[in-house]
Structures are given as C-alpha cells and as structure tokens.
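Just curious. Protein, please.
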Amino acid sequence: MPNQKIIVQPDNQYVFTDNTGLFQAGSFPGTHTITWDSLSSPFELNAASPPSYTANVNQTTSGYDFGLNSLLPPYECSLLTLHGAVRCNNSNYTYVSFKNTGIVPYDARITIIKSSNTSFNAGGTVPSYVSGDTIVFNVTNLQPQQQGTIYFYLIMPAAGSTISTTAIIESLDGSGNVVSSDSQSRTTTVTCAFDPNDKAVTPAGVQSANYTLMSETLEYLIRFQNTGNDTAFTVVIRDTIDIDLNLSTFMMIDASHAVQTQVDVATRIVTFTFNNILLVDSNMNEPLSHGYVKYSIKPNAGLINVTAVQNTAHIYFDFNDPIATNTTLNTLVYSIPTSVPEILPSAKGIVSVMPNPFTEEAYIVFSNDDKNKYRLMVLNLQGKLVMDKIVESEKFLLKRKM
C-alpha cells in the first residue's frame, strides 16, 4: 500500500512507502526503532502485525513489514490528482489519477466536464464516449488499493481566458449502481508562456497576498518534465519546508512514478527520489516526459495573524544542475481581510517610492485624499513578508532596518 508513513528513530526522519508498498530509509550503524504511523491513515494494524521493530543495523537490512486492515467502506474511491498544461491556442495534456481505496475490486467511471471554451482532441487515453463538454472513461476491474491514470488533450483558447475542468470518479457495484464517488475541480487562467517545472498550492489564497485561513490544509503539487535530449534515469526533488508548517502532518498523496520519500526533521528537507524512472525526453514522447509529486501539510498551531508561508522546490535530472521552481506564497490569517481596500499594481502612478533606489530610508507615497485606511504590505525580493501596517496618511517612512 503506497504513501504509508514510517518513523525511524533516533534518526528523527519519516519515510513513505512507494506505489508498491516498499519503503527505504538511509541510516547509520546502531539500534533503530521502526514504527508505522497511523496519523490520518485509513488503516489500522492487523492483530498479527508487530507495532514496531527494533533493528541493530550495521549493513543493508530488510523485512520490516506491517500488516494493515482498511477502515474504509468496501467500494471507496478517491480522485487523487487533476492537473494539466494551459498553453494558449495549443493542444495540451490533462492528467487524472485515481485510486480504489476500498477492499473489493470494482468497475469505475471517470467523468470529465470541460470548459465550453476548450475543445477535446484525440490522442490520449481513448474515452468511452464524448458528448458536448462531457468526456467519459470506463475502467474495468480496478483492484483494491490499485491506482490508475488517464490523460487527454484539450485545445486551449487565447491567453487570458479562464478555463475550469472537473473530474469525477464513481465506483460501481455488480449491477452498475454508483456506490461511492469523489471529485476535484481546477480553474486556471490560460497563458502563452509555460514552465513545465513548477509548484502549485491549493488553496492558492485570495487577493494579492494570497490570504489563506489558518485552518486550511495546504496541498502542494510539484510538476517536472524532461525537456532535454536523452532519457533521464534518476529524478530527485528537494523541498525545504517552511518553518511555519507542521512537519509531523506531512502526508504523501500521489506521485506519477514509484518514488522514495524521506523527511529529515532536523533540516526540514523533504527528498523525493525517482530511481530508474526512465523518463523519456519530450522530443521522443511528449506525454510520457512528465512527472509529479503531490503532498499535504498543515500550518503550525498558534501562529501570529498574517504569517507568510513560502515554498520552493529544486529538481535534479541525473547529474544536471538543479532547476528551481517558482515560489508559492500563502499569507495565513484567522479571517480573510475584507474591510481594507487594496491599491492594485495596475493603478498606474498611484504609488511611488522616493528616493528610488534608496539605501537607508525612503517614503512610500500614494494618493489618499479621503484619508481612507489602507493596508501596507512590504515583501522582500524572495517574496517574504517583512512589514504589515495599517496606514491612513498619504506617505509612510520606510526604513531599511525596520
């Protein structure tokens, strides 16, 4: 069973099982305790399974198996990941991964509802039928804990258009009746420039500061593509988790290929290793040149209001230099601000900095004839929030060492 969390002490690290149920932990010689963690897992230990192992290790060792019983209904299903490219006026892939999270085999139906401003294009997984904006795929004999993936192509409209895609999985009993279902939706703005190595967070947050409630669980999706000129044998992703996120709540959700996941609590670095991935380059086979990982994590308890959380991942293809993804930003708040208006960057000339550039201090000046209250937020070049104040005047003195 994939994505099961294993704790290794005194190493102070977590590892997760891959899609075959195997886990691997690098360690040092000595005595170690290996424990399966039931946190947020829909399983419990089988009565015949040991709760933990004590291993005196001085070489590579194996055989630390845990037997689990499912706590979910027999026909449970899950829609794991929905993502795709949105390059303007082009035929772009969309991937959907799903899983039989129940304990019996069943047939499943995957329904895609696309935006009316996109067009379905053949070339991916062959659908059972297409009717207007609805695309249906039938999956037969999906085994317990088995994961599946389909992909299809949509022709995108012009840049700046908004598209929405919804994916639904339904599990069917022997009579064809729907027993359970799950779904995900994705709304995206079409662009003409597209970086295939990126990172996205859900929820993305609202307003320019990406305000997000403290109670939200953050889901991160890291995508990568081999755009080189040869097959990639190993892909490694290193992701340093923001200090304001609770590492003990880190959970693996999905991955495109078999992956070894290790969380180093001391350094807060999560390493995803795709060994022998054999990821072909995009010139040879564009659909098979993509990969991804998806995980979730919760904020720490007791954070101060307006806490900025950032994340950047680095992707290594074999021996090449790392590729840095974009940096995601969520500003965590206890309630979404609504009473303070924003001065948008598009309001040309309304905000100025004098002098610019400056060394020690400068005035931020903006038009405020009505003496309204404004929220002034200053971020550094890395996107980290360094100042957050409510101002009522038309200028504010900004000091370099504030």
Observations:
- The chain has three domains: 5-70, 77-238+273-333, 351-399.
